[in-house]
Structure formats: structure tokens, C-alpha cells
DNA sequence: AATACGGGGCC
DNA sequence: GGCCCAGTATT
């Protein structure tokens, strides 16, 4: 173990901290849908949805998802497209695909029982060190660390840990700290209490120290370092990508949509035909026209600029020009592209930016 | 060790 | 406009 941390922990009032935290959590915890019971499957789904996603955002998705797929068997037997549709708008869609894949494994290999050992649960797709610890502690009462961004921020302040919380390997330092502090009587309340504290009191900016149940144990508070901790390195700016999107209507009034590849960004989601601008030699309209001709063998009349839209992802920015046009092409349905009405679009999983496009088109009544 | 992977809400 | 969010998989 990190020797600074080891020394800190030797003199740290562990029992006071643990008792204050657990009692505060048991008294003040929010009433959240995944806290209804300790069904490991329900806990699992909530933990996957909560990855990099705020509680308030998750709640409506979680309620709908549990209604659609109440048990391991229901999710295992569902069509992937239905699962993606339920995830639509939540982001990080590989979470949904990995969750279903892992649930199918639990259904088949473990007879529907979510594994209760670190070794087995960590083998499941989409279950990393945080999620493994969260399920084991919350659903099974096993004293394993569940270190997320909240826990690193809280412990950084409580123990004045100066390791950069943006560096992945440093998570292990915080896991060691949790192992030294965790309640063995109620590991669930301890881990959830750490996260709840981070969400409600020990927030990134303007933490509510005067309301904090462990202020007496907080070394950052004692030393006036609350605003200096945690230390977190900055991430680099997202890359800009210029795209042209075609909203192409055929004689039957249906629109051409395509399915994205099964790996990478927005995998398996549906979208309007999209071409990336790679050189300045071609205009945007020509780039799109050649793409449609090459990919779908269609000629489009009056391919005209309609509007622009920008969409920001974590690691890139799409700057999109949307063009509209008509074709004499007849409808036929293939696997990776379809001709559909705007109403039919709403039954398929679309990334938010393409939802915005079909909403805009619908509004302008094309 | 770095990068890919969504989307929204807050300051 | 940047930061952050109950992170994980891949390279």
C-alpha cells in the first residue's frame, strides 16, 4: 500500500467515520427505484445505467426498463433492437448490448442467478471493478470496494489523498482505503453512503461541509483544503468532424435510413445516410450525392441544403449539414437499410442527434 | 497508459 | 465553453 496512505490510516478515526457515514445514509438516503429491494438483477441494471450518468437522468429509463424486462429471463429473451430502443437517449449504448450479453450468460450458465463472487461476477461483459463491488456489496452484503468518481472525490478530501483521480491506476489506492474503512456489518450502506455523500454533500464544487456527517473526520476540512482536492488532470479537447446527412424521400413518401456498424460509435443504431467530408475538393452536396449513388445506387433530384446541427460527444463534435432530396427509387427492405415513414422511425433506436433531424423534418412537413 | 464511447445539466 | 456524472473495453 501507498506509504503516505498507510500512515494516514493508522491515525485515522475509522470507527467514527464508518458509524457516522452509515447512520447518516440509513437516515437520509434518497428514495430511489433500485432501492426498492436487493434483487441482484435490479441492482445490476441500475449500476450499469448509472455509469457516467446522473441519478435524475437514470430514474425514468430504469423504471421503463424494469417494466419491459423485469427479470433475467425477460432480458435474455428480448430482441436486441428492443433493448437498444429502451436505452435510446441514455448514451454509451455498448452498455446495453454488453448487459444483455452478460444477462444471457447468467441465464444460461448460472441458471439465472447473478454470480456472488468477485471472480465470477467480474467475468461478465460490462462488469468492471466498480460494478462488481457495487453488486456484491449492495445485493449480497459482501465487503468489497465500489470505487466510482464520488468515492475518489470524497476519500481524496477525507484522507487528503493527492493522487490524480483522473489517472486510472490510482483507483487502486482508493480501493485500499475503502478496504481499510468499510463496514463489515453493513457494506451496502457504507458503499452507498460514500456515493450518496458525494452526490448530496461532498459535491465537486461548493460542497455542503456544514451539513456533512463526517466533517469531524475530514482532514481536508480541518486543513482548509476542501477546494484544492481532489486533484484531477484535464482532458484534451474533442475532435471536430464535418458530416453531411441526407433526408431522402422516395415516390411512396418513405425515407431512407441505414443501420450503423455493429462496433464503434453508436453501434447498431439507425440513422439517416451520412457521409463524412474528407477533402475540400468536393462540395458538401456533391459529397452526399456521390455517397448515395455509390452506396445505394440512387439518383436524387434537387438535393438541397436544409439546415445545420451540431452535436457534442465526449471525444468529438459532429458539425452536420442536413440536405433534403427526392428519388424515384421504389421501396424495398434490406437488412442494413430501410425505407420508412417518420412514424416508423420512432419505433427504431436512433441516436439523439438523428432524432432531432427527423423531428425537424416532421415540423417542416416535407 | 491512452483512447473510444453519449448525453444532459450546471456554472 | 468546460466540467462532471454510481466506468468499461480496447488498443
Distance between the termini: 64 Å
Pick out the low-confidence regions.
Answer: none
**Secondary structure tally, helices:** 16
Series of H and E elements: HHHHHHHHHHHHHEEEEHEEEHH
Quote the CATH topology of the largest domain: Endonuclease III, domain 1
> From the alpha-carbon coordinates, what is the Rg to the nearest angstrom?
25 Å
Number of domains: 2
Average pLDDT value?
Answer: 94
**Percent of residues in β-strands:** 5-15%
What is the CATH level 1 assignment of the largest domain? Mainly Alpha
What's the architecture of the largest domain in CATH terms? Orthogonal Bundle
The helix fraction, in percent, is 40-55%
Which structural class is indicated by helix and strand composition? alpha+beta
Major pleated sheet: 4 strands, mixed
- Shape estimate: elongated
Number of strands: 7
Family: Belongs to the Nth/MutY family.
Organism: Gottfriedia solisilvae
Protein name: Adenine DNA glycosylase
GO molecular function, one term: 8-oxo-7,8-dihydroguanine DNA N-glycosylase activity
